[in-house]
Amino acid sequence: MTPRIDEIREAYSEQLRTFQNRRSPDLFESVCGIVRAAAEDVAERLFDEMLPDPAVRRYLTPDRVENGLLESLADWIRDLFRRRSDSEIVAFIERQLRVGHVHAEANVPIRFMDRGIRILKREIHQRLTSSSLSRRDLGPAVASVGEILDIGSSLIRESFYSDILVREGEYRLQQALKRTLALVLAGGRGSRLGLLTAAQAKPAVPFGGKFRLIDFPLSSCLNSGIRRVGVLTQYRSHDLIQHVQRGWGFFRRELSEFIEIWPAHQQTPSGSWYRGTADATFQNLGTITAHDPDHVLVLAGDHVYKQDYSRMLAQHLERGTQVTVCCTEVSREMASSFGIVTVDANDNITGFVEKPTDPATIPGRPDRCLASMGIYIFEAGFLIRELRRDAGDPDSSHDFGKDLIPYLVGKSRMTAHRFEKSCIRNQGTGESYWRDVGTVDAYWAANMDLVTVTPPLDLYDPGWPIWTCQEQSPPAKFVFDEDGRRGHAVDSMVSSGCIVSGGIARRSLLFNDVRLHSQSLAEDSVILPRVDVGNGCRLRKAVVDRDCVLPAGLIVGEDPEEDARRFHRTRAGVTLITASALQRLSPGDRGPFSDLLRSVSSGGARSGRETPVASTPVGRGDGAYSRSAG
Prior knowledge:
By secondary structure, the chain is an alpha/beta fold. It contains 21 helices and 31 strands. Strands 1, 4, 5, 6, 8, 9, 10, 11 and 12 form a 9-stranded mixed β-sheet that branches. A 6-stranded mixed β-sheet has the order 18-21-24-27-31-30. A 5-stranded parallel β-sheet has the order 14-19-22-25-28. The N and C termini lie far apart (73 Å).
């Protein structure tokens, strides 16, 4: 604002130097009377022009125009005439900028401001010329009022963006949100997660104790004000569809709100399944056009973050672009896993390369790159045309990141949206948190983020809740308070339905209905729903798939070679335990308490009661210790 005030100060000072010696109270009153009469007449005509506009009718009345903008402008000019010194005028202008006096009362859309000022200037000139003012006063009066109106119109436009345009912009944004259709691409196989996605699509993978991955983009849609969502499914979609239907069925159809499941249904003449993300969208063009959106928001269904999409849409509207790509900064070492964007000084996209081996870095920051997050906003008509073009391209793999977005660079209006401008942060850390949990290591690390004292992803924020399917489970329970057999959890998250029965959870995340039995330890581990951790088990840096029954005495995370032989062990040292791997274990691999498997799996531990056995020594680990009943 300071440069703007300096310009106004200079312009007014120059004008006052030429007019200062000729002013008198009578002259100013005469000029202001003429200005006021002209303002009232122009205000009436201006309001008649604005009547057909629904955005104007929403908050305007004739009195607000007549007694607001132009009358306030006349008062403003009169007050300026009465200032006795340049410093008083400058102080007055700066105060007007701060309080927005003229503009707060006016409530007139910006597009009518220039026309109103032009009409008013003509009226004032005509009335001054035909007035009874002497020729000696007439010239300076006409010149001064014209100059003041020129400068004043610029000043008004400058302040409009911080005051009245905010209200008009909010209304425009609200309408745009209602006319936006979100497409959540949730058909991916997620093969890099290994056996975690053997029976379900990646967006259905549990995360954070009680959620699924898809809950995060869906919650961001809901919290951002986008209530029309299509979920595109394909690979092993039954569990995902069931979750969305049960947990997200509260939208009101009569208010044009919905979350619809759009399963793959081979819409192409060749009868093919989805060949890529762009093809998945193309095969649903009939459904998209039936909803008649103005804007289409394309999202991945398997990323963890919280984002206000309305801020991204506001930038899209303000810049008038055809495509807006959401981007975040990543290290150069990680850049080869993403689509890397290059931009100019105004964040217009000048380049896009999918997973480059030699990625372009941010100017002045050779260790950082700007990565696409797979979040796009398209003008609907533009997207439809481009999808049809891409579908007919035999050389395309029909993917947004590999084909469509790179093709559009230089051929359309494309801008980057910086994720930090719309991310919902944990105020305690300030991090713009976004994770692509595409590997077991990334999945484990993202879950581990949540058990820190101040996690970068705040699941406890009532202002931005994460919605999900709420299963009816009892509260978590911690039992036994005996030396060597004390059920407790520290630096951990324990979900509903869990029973920590004489075991210990340390820096771990226990999902719903987990049983942690006596003398067992879960450390730095992620244990998915309905897992039984048998007596005397020790788990370190492990991910246990849901519905697993771990044999008593099983030890994971202490012998890397042994872990790799029995289970899947990642480069970062995370061990993935699945039901199929447990079934392949030999009796020696199961641990000294393998005889408990039958009683545990038959339901004895499900009630929270451990099966009594004779006192038995535990083998490997910290040394033998006795295990009494339970």
